[in-house]
Amino acid sequence: MNIQSHYSLKEHNSFGVDANTDWWIAFDSEEDLLSLSKDEFFASLSFVVIGEGTNLLFIDDYHGAVLSSQISSIEEGEREGAFQYVRAGSGIVWDDFVADMLQRGFYGIENLSAIPGTVGASAVQNIGAYGAEVSQIISAVETVDLHNGEKHTFTHEECAFAYRKSLFKQPEMASHVVTHVTYRLSREPQLNLSYAALKQTFEGKNPTPLEVRQAVRSIRSAKLPDHHEYPNAGSFFMNPVVEAALAETMLKAYPEMPHYPAKDGVKLSAAWLIDQSGLKGIRHGAVGTWPKQPLVIVNYEQASGREIADFAQFVVDTVKKKFAITLHPEVRYIQ
Ligand code: EPU
């Protein structure tokens, strides 16, 4: 375990915000978490767990402890027909894990290529892209509760996955730190080419999962800025789900509006709403929306977390004025 005081978080958040934390704790094992849970000084601090920091915004310096998983084991578990279970440490970089699985011939993960973040964050956030959601392949999530050091294993059902949501995002789970995630992959390719851009790319072809990974990588990089060059945290807002009646009214005024069926209503496109509100590619000083995908907010010139949050609020207010729809951040605010 590596513990540092007065530590800069600049390299630990993809917005490149120059914030500090009172304590930085990089833990290597469940035992490290158990010893932290028994430590009186640590128990007195507030804490937050981060992965690669690619989906969060530090509003100010953090007064407490920022924890980061370094657990990086990969264990091949049971085989069940064509299915292969794999248990992975929460600190593994997500895309390294995807590449590793494909190399082993374990499939069903290729559409989620190139998403920034870690294995632990994949479960907390229920990452999704190009017609897939990680919840479709998660069979169990293990945590340690820092309040008492107890280990827990949650089944797929208990994880309560929904669009960009899971049990682990609920406030009462804040003391649980994800240590391992078990995935159920397939030893036989089972391609999901439902996303329009993938369907087009492979029209009349029979691609390998590795080719799907390559296609996803290039579709992604054509639309989304690389955070090493243009600091950002991917989609800043979630796509809003509205009541069917509201979607119908809007479709009368905007027949071309993208809309998708959702569990409890109709899912609209936040990118489209922002675009139609005249906010595509705009800039307020150091912060702006990405010209090719306005759902992404970019920190162009070393803005503070607060400046980024203010700009995001401006986007929310402007969209609300035009469409009476409130966008909610997908990015997690930490203060
Ligand atoms: N659109 C516009 N104007 C634009 C850009 C897009 O109107 O300038 C419209 C497009 O016409 C399209 C719609 O917005 O109909 C949706 O765009 P896109 O397919 O790019 O997907 P998204 O809904 O904006 C979601 C995820 C992304 C994921 C993509 C691809 C969320 C919040 N975002 O974006 O995830 O990569 O689908 O599956 O669900 C992330 O979560 O950080 C992320 C990047």
Percentage of residues in strands: 25-35%
Bound molecule types: uridine-diphosphate-2(N-acetylglucosaminyl) butyric acid
What is the count of helical runs? Answer: 9
Separation, N- and C-terminal Cα atoms: 24 Å
Series of secondary-structure elements, N-terminal to C-terminal: EEHHEEEEEHHEEEEEHHEEHEEHEEEHE
Describe the strand arrangement of the main beta sheet, using strand numbers. Answer: 6-7-12-10-11
User: How would you sum up the major sheet?
Assistant: 5 strands, antiparallel
Quaternary: single chain
* Coarse morphology: globular
**Poorly predicted regions:** none
**Rg from C-alpha positions?**
20 Å
Could you tell me the mean pLDDT? 97
- Kindly state the percentage of residues in helix: 25-40%
Descriptive notes:
This protein is an alpha+beta fold. The chain has helices at 30-37, 40-43, 94-104, 119-125, 196-201, 209-223, 244-253, 270-276, 305-323, and strands spanning 2-8, 20-27, 47-50, 56-58, 62-69, 74-80, 83-89, 128-129, 132-133, 138-145, 150-155, 176-186, 232-235, 241-242, 259-262, 265-268, 283-284, 287-290, 293-299, 332-334. A five-stranded antiparallel beta sheet has the order 6-7-12-10-11. A hairpin with a 2-residue loop joins strand 6 and strand 7 (83-89). The radius of gyration is 20 Å and the shape is globular. The two termini are 24 Å apart. Bound molecules: uridine-diphosphate-2(N-acetylglucosaminyl) butyric acid.
